[in-house]
Structure formats: structure tokens, C-alpha cells
Design brief:
single chain; Rossmann fold; six-stranded mixed β-sheet
């Protein structure tokens, strides 16, 4: 269940293990341990979420093997991590969180799982694939083409004008 005062701001609900398996850098962490992969996801979401300063993020993981487990999220680096009860799947918990939210339209669910995506979309949430986390990383500055000193982001007309100026300066035009 999402706290009502927090749902009034943009909320991201991340399907933890689904995203870990879809992002190669996170999946590689599974070779170390499941905990290492979870920690890497939390760090990734914390870093990624900085662009959404006024938002809330929940990462939902399939539960621990304990039947006695409170429903309060574990807060790690400012990210709420929810572990389901052993008999409840993360998929069901995510759909339930959206269904019980006061403003599902302010929720974006990040998962590649069709059941989660369809179930949350039916409840009014927005859905994104796990690549949304990677795609929305700040893109590195595109390097300048050192041979011709042309920025790769130049538009066609800018390139034409640049070469005209270059050829005039060389006395070719």
C-alpha cells in the first residue's frame, strides 16, 4: 500500500528482479550474489532518480522466506524497497499497489513483465520497459570529430555552411 500523502507526487514502482535480469550491468552482479544485484539496482535507481527530485520510488522484490514480515518498506539510500511475503509475488504486489493508489495516473511502473504491465495499465498507471532506466541516464557528450573538427550534433545546413567557410578560407571557392 502506498502512503496517501506520497502518492500525490509522481511515483515510480520498479519490478526489482525483472529489471535486474533485463539490464546487463545489473544481471552481471548476480554472479556475485543476489544481494549484490539488489544493491546495484538500488544505487542505479538512486542515481537515476535525481532527475525526478520531487518523485517517490519503490523497488518491489519477491519476498523473503519468512511468513512474519511487516509491510513497511525497507529504506535504502532513500529508495523504498518492498519485499513481499513468501506466498505473494512481486507482480501481484505491484498491481495491488497501483489498484489501491489514490492517483494511479501519477504512477509509472517499470517492468518488462506483460502481466505486470497490462495489470497496471488497466488500473490507470503508466508503464515503461526496464530500458527506461538506462535510456533516461544522462547521455554522454558526443565527441567532436577530430579530423574535420565538426561536432556530430551539427545539422545538415550547419555542416554545409562550415565547409563553405572552410573552402573559402583555403581559397578553393
Amino acid at each position: 500500500m502506498l502512503p496517501s500523502q506520497e502518492i500525490m507526487k509522481k511515483t515510480f514502482i520498479i519490478d526489482g528482479y525483472n529489471v535486474i535480469h533485463k539490464i546487463p550491468e545489473l544481471c552481471a552482479k548476480l554472479e556475485e550474489s543476489l544481494e549484490s544485484a539488489r544493491d546495484a539496482l538500488v544505487i542505479e535507481i538512486q542515481s537515476w532518480k535525481r532527475r525526478y527530485a520531487d518523485s517517490k520510488a519503490y523497488i518491489v522484490f519477491d519476498g523473503k522466506n519468512e511468513d512474519i514480515f511487516d509491510d513497511l518498506p525497507t529504506r535504502i539510500l532513500g529508495i523504498d524497497c518492498v519485499f513481499t511475503r513468501s506466498k505473494e509475488s512481486a507482480d501481484d504486489r505491484i498491481i495491488s499497489m497501483v489498484r489501491n493508489a489514490e492517483a494511479p495516473s501519477l504512477i509509472t511502473v517499470i517492468s518488462d513483465d506483460n502481466q505486470v504491465r497490462n495489470g497496471c495499465r488497466m488500473q490507470g498507471a503508466q508503464v515503461q520497459y526496464s530500458s527506461f532506466i538506462s535510456i533516461n541516464k544522462k547521455k554522454p557528450h558526443r565527441p567532436v570529430n577530430r579530423i574535420n573538427n565538426i561536432d556530430n550534433n551539427m545539422q545538415e545546413q550547419e555542416i554545409t555552411d562550415y565547409y563553405k567557410k572552410h573552402l573559402i578560407n583555403k581559397g578553393i571557392l
